[in-house]
Amino acid sequence: MADTAGTGEIYPGITVDPQIVHGKPVFTGTRILVAPVLGALAAGDSMETVCDAYGLTPEQLQVGIGYAAGLVAHKQVYVIANA
User: Fold this and answer.
1) Which of 39, 43, 82, 83 is deepest in the core (most CB within 10 A)?
2) Rounded-to-integer distance, Cα 32 and Cα 54, Å
3) Does residue 6 lie in a domain region?
4) Spatial distance between the Cα atoms of 67 and 13, rounded to a whole number of angstroms
5) For the whole model, what pTM was predicted?
6) Are 63 and 11 in contact (CB under 8 A)?
7) What is the DSSP letter of 17?
8) Structural domains of the chain, count
9) pLDDT tens, 29-49?
10) What per-residue string of b and e applies to 9-27 under the rule 16 or more CB within 10 Å gives b?
11) Is the pLDDT score of 68 beyond 70?
């Protein structure tokens, strides 16, 4: 039986599994990493272009954006003054 520790859905539609792409977040049911998809959107590629390039649906892109928004919402950032 495979070890399933650290495996599962971390956000609706986003999964991690150490056996798939070294445990990095992917769109559930795929091996497509979330980070480069979001990077393509951030670079200005249209949703249609990104969907076509990665074989994803617009709903999956929205899931990726929601996942990223959740990460940012829970991240604490501290400003350190220059000495």
Assistant:
1) 39
2) 7
3) no
4) 9
5) 0.84
6) yes
7) B
8) 1
9) 999 999 999 999 999 999 999
10) eebebbbbbeeeeeeebbb
11) yes
